[in-house]
Specification:
The protein has two helices and four strands. By secondary structure, the chain is of the alpha+beta class. It has one domain. Helix 2 links the parallel strand 3 and strand 4. The relative contact order is 0.17.
Length: about 100
């Protein structure tokens, strides 16, 4: 498109605009969210009986418990299942003896 005014020329280009969707737009469109978690039980995380371990068991929540609870609370509002599978890997069950 071109317009002329006196000695000046103004050119217009026809283009398309794209609206970047927000998170809520996906939810309104019917998208669902799910949470799957995996916990690393390898020895590199420390002995669960030691306070410095990521797996330390006490009345106070350890870092894994805090993270799963906080993320789970957010995802729960957008999840239809309201259920979250959690898998563990790298650990040896206590009832098995290692030679």
């Amino acid at each position: 498109m071109q317009g002329t005014y006196g000695n000046s020329t103004l050119n217009f280009r026809v283009g398309e605009s794209f609206k970047r969707p927000y998170f809520i737009d996906f939810l309104h469109a019917g998208w669902q969210m799910s949470l799957f978690a995996a916990i690393d039980y390898t020895a590199s995380n420390g002995e669960p009986s030691e306070e410095s371990s990521l797996h330390y068991i006490s009345k106070k929540k350890n870092p894994y418990e805090k993270a799963l609870l906080n993320v789970g609370r957010v995802i729960e509002s957008y999840s239809h299942e309201k259920s979250y599978p959690v898998f563990g890997f790298g650990g040896i069950p206590r009832h098995l003896k290692v030679s």
